[in-house]
Amino acid sequence: MGPTGLIGLVNFFAFVLISIHLGGDAINGHISGGDYFVCGHGFCTQVTRSVWHYSYWHALATIGFMLLAVAETAYFWWTGDIKSSATI
Description:
This protein is an alpha+beta fold. The protein has one domain (about 5-75). The chain has helices at about 5-20, 50-80, and strands at about 25-30, 35-40, 45. The chain has a 3-stranded antiparallel sheet with strand order 1-2-3, covered by helices on one side. Helix 1 (about 5-20) packs antiparallel against helix 2. The two termini are about 25 Å apart.
């Protein structure tokens, strides 16, 4: 696993743990009348504006790292740096 995968994995687990602690994330949450809510599994929790923005950007960063890891793996597979062990 390269540095992108390692950072992405650590970031993913941090995102999951923080989302559990907060009761959800901002991607699934909403802003209503100046109040900020993070949501997960049908429940919403009111948080401060700064926590909501942190959760929002952390979710986007997590998605970005996942996409980057997939693109990086595809690139290395395409160039032959990663060989498939599957046989058909």
